[in-house]
Amino acid sequence: MTPRAVAAGAILSSQALLVAAFAAAGRPIGMAAAAACAACWLMVLARSAPGASACLGAALGLATLALLADAPAWLPSLGAGAGLAAWDLTAFCARGERAPDAPGERALLASRLRALALGILPGLALAGLLGHVRLDLPFAATAAVAAAAVLLLDRASRRWG
Amino acid sequence: MNGKAATLLALAMGLLLAALVTRRGEVAALAAPLLTLLAAGVLRAPAPGGARLRAQRSVQRDGAGGVAVEVVVRNEGDAPVHLRLADGPSSAEGGARTRALLAAGAETTLAYTLRAQRGRFAWGAVAAVVADPLGLVEVPLELPAPGEVHLQPEAARLRPLPLQPGRTLPAPGSVLARVGGSGTDFYGVREYHIGDALRWLDWHSNARHPGRLFTKEFEQEEMADVGVVLEARATAGDRLGNESLFEHTVRAAASLAATSLRQGNRVSLLVLGRTEARVFPGAGRVHLQRILSCLAAARAGPDRALPDPGRSFVRLFPAGSILFVLSPLGADTAPFLLRLHAHGRRVVLVSPDAIDFHAPRVGRDPVSRLALRAARVERRLALAAVAQHHIPVVDWQVSRPLDPLLRAALRPPRGGAAWRSRS
Question: Cα torsion at B151, B154, B155, B156 (round to 10°)?
Fold first, then answer.
C-alpha cells in the first residue's frame, strides 16, 4: 500500500468519524462541514499542496464543535486522533525527497506508522480516561492550571526548539 | 523543534484555551493525542552529534555529455537513523534529494546526473538532516564529501591554419619565418660556407660558375605567437532554447587554441566576461589544458567597456603576434580592434552572427522582417568598417563550419606578401 493511499484512508476515517459524531448530535450542517473538510484535505493530498495544517485545524475545530453539540465524546476524540495521523501522513507524502528504492520507502512508511501508533494511541487512551474524570475546580484554579500548562509547553518548545 | 512541532504545540494550546473558555473537560482531552505525539517525537529525538554518518562521493563524466554524481552515506553508529539528504554543486543549479531509514551499518546512495555543457563544478558537503521517526525534532548535519569536475569545452579539430604573423620566435615551429635555415621549403641559393652540408650543394649553379660553390637554402620554420580574445559580455550570452551563441563562441576559441598549439605555436588567451581571465603565452599539451580550464570557467558577464590594449597587453600578446578576436561585434568592438592593430598585432575578427542565430524566433510579419533586414545591413556595414582597416573578418553563422571561413580569411591577399612583412 502506498503512503498516499494510507493517508487518504486516514483522512476519510477521521472525517467519517466526525460526520458520525454530528449525525449522533443531529447536526446536518456539521456533517456537511466535515464532508467538505474531507474533500479539501483529499485535494491537498492529491496535489501535494500546502494546507494540511489548516485541514487539521479545521478537523480539530469540528471535533470541538461536535463535543459542544453533545455528540458522544469518543467519536470526535477518535476523529481527532485519525486526523492527526492523516496530517502527519499528508506531510510525509508531500515531501520532495523519496527513498532510492521501493523497499526503502516501505520501510520508512512502516516506521512512520509505528511511530504514529506509539504517539497517538496513548493520547487517545488518556483522552478516554480524562472523559471519566470530573474535577470541579473554581475558575481561578482552572485558569492557573491552564496557565501552568501553557508555560510548560512554552518551556518545552524552548528546550527542544 | 521544527514548524511541524510548532503547529502541534499551537493547536494543543488552542484546544486548551477553547476548553478554558467553554469550561468543557472533553475539549481539553482532545489535546491529549497532540501532546503525546509531540512527546513521542521529543523522546525519540536524535542527540546533536549522536549520529555517526560518513559520506563518500564519486564524480565522473558519463558518455552522454553529463556528469554522474553518486554519494554513498553510511551509518557508522549503533542505532538506526531517519535521514534526509540533499546534494548539489555549489556553483550551479541541479542536484537531488532523498530520504532513508538507515539501520546500523547500512548505507544509502544518492545518485543523479548533472546536465551541463561546460563549467567548473565543485561540491563541498552533503546536507543531511537527522530526525526522530515523526520528523518533529531535526538535527542538521554537514557530511564532508568534496568533489570537483571541470567540463572543458569541446575543441574541434581544424585543419592547420595558414598563419602569417608579423614576427616569429627563434624556436622550431610550423610558420615559415622568411629566413634561410633548416626547413623543408626551398628558399634560395647562396655561396657555400665551410660547414654547410655537401648534400645541399646546388650543382646547376656550381656548373654555371666554375671555381665557386653554391648551396641551396631552405626556409626556416619557427614558432609564432597566437592570441585568442574571447569577448564574453552580456550581448554574447544570448540563448535560443538549449543553444547558446556564447557556447558556440567558446567552442570556437577552444578549437583555435588547440589547432594553434598543435601547429607548434605559443598561445595566450584573454576572456573578457564576468571576470577578466588571462592565460599567458605557452605551448604544449599542459598549456592546452590550462586554456581549456580557463574556457570551462568562462561566463558571459555584464556589458562593460573593453580594456585599453596598451601596455597591459604587451606580455599577453607580444607585438607581431596574430590575434583571433571572437566577438559578436558590439558598438565598441571596432575601436578595440583598431587599437590592437595599431599596437602591431595581426588581428583577425571572428564574429558569430547573432542576428542569424536569433532569426528563427523573429516574427514573420512585415515589420519584423524589415527589422531583421535592417539589423543585417547594420551588421554588414560594421564588418565592412573593420575590414577596410585590413583586418581579416570571419562573418560566422554558427550553423556553418568555421574551418573553411577561417582559411579563406587567412589566405594572403592578392599581390603576395603585402599583408606580411618581417618586422
Answer: 170
Q: Is A81 in CB contact (< 8 Å) with chain B? A: yes
- Cβ neighbours for B381, distance < 8 A, ≥ 6 positions apart: none
Q: Which residues of B touch A68 (CB under 8 A)?
A: 22, 24, 27
Is residue A106 within 8 angstroms of chain B, CB to CB? no
Asked if B324 and B256 touch (Cβ cutoff 8 Å), the reply is: yes
Alpha helices in B104-244 (DSSP H): 203-208
Range of the domain at A97: 3-160
Per-residue cell: B411: 589566405
At A87-138, the pLDDT tens digits run: 999 999 988 778 888 888 889 999 999 999 999 999 999 988 877 777 777 8
Sequence-distant (6+) residues with CB within 8 A of A153 are: B9, B12, B13, B35
Hey, what domains does chain B have and what are their CATH numbers? Answer: 53-151 (2.60.40.10), 179-222 (no CATH), 223-410 (3.40.50.410)
Into how many domains does chain A fold?
Answer: 1
pTM for the whole structure = 0.69
The answer to whether residues A65 and A76 touch, using CB atoms and an 8 Å cutoff, is: no
Q: What number is the ipTM of this complex?
A: 0.89
